[in-house]
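#lab-general

N.A. 3:47 PM
ok so I finally got the sequence cleaned up, no stray characters, all 310 residues accounted for. can someone with queue access submit it? mine expired

B.Y. 3:52 PM
send it over

N.A. 3:53 PM
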Amino acid sequence: MLIGWLGLALVSAGTSAEKMRVKSGNVNVRSGPGTRYEIVCQAAAGELVAVRRTTDEWSEIAPPAGAKLWVYAELIEESAVVTRVQVRSGPGISYRPVGKLEQGQAVTIHETVGEWARIAPPREASVWISSQFLESPNAPQAPVVSPRATPTPTKPTKPAKPVVAPVVAAPKPVRTHPPKPAPAVTPVRRRTPPPQPAPVATPAAPEEAITPDVPAALVGRELAVGKPQGDVVELSGEIRASGFSWGKLGPYRLVGKGARGRTVTICYVLGNSKQLDSILGRRVSIKGRQYWVRRVRYPGVRPDRIRVQR
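B.Y. 4:20 PM
back already:
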């Protein structure tokens, strides 16, 4: 019985969460402990969050109600998952997992994007927030002090001096002179400036094309100008390691057979490393978005779906 009570105490300590209060508004909540991880929602000032554990700078919390978390829609039937499935921070396997759901667990679907469904945040998931924006709910909040009007000291009034009427002398007679004729005004000729040519409108420089939702692996890389960015493609081939090639976009690539039967690279695969490790050497079909980087021969594809071919 003593061992059982100790085990129950350890489980309770591992699942307990401490309530903390958000000190300021619009604080980013992310899928991992760092600014490089995806933002899943924002916390408001005064909002209480359940802290599960804390590192030096980040706190792991239960996902707030507004967190946008996703699962693969084909694994949901009649508002329940049909097998064990990972919950991710975005609609694709390249997004970071934040939790798991077991077979038969009920889910609430908020929206669907392609083959992915955004669900109500499950309690099994975990997200992260910067610890500097958290405080104890018992900590005193700074009161809002309304400015009060400061009374202006009044100066003592001095007694009014008696007003003495001045003695007015009799007016002297005024001599009148006939008005002088006004001098003749010579009109001044003004030189009319020559007409100036109309200013030539300089065409505005084209704005830099911004491609939304660029994969994290390509952040900081210069995208190729004139190439289509973010197009949805479907490719087939074999998953292999990229090796030590110069300018590669990631450690994995999709290869196929060229015209002479030689192995050629089709694209770099910008997906989850654990999943891609498990299918190295297997033939697959990939559907995802394609991006081109300057001075790199092959594009990078962030897959939304990978099917292993038999």
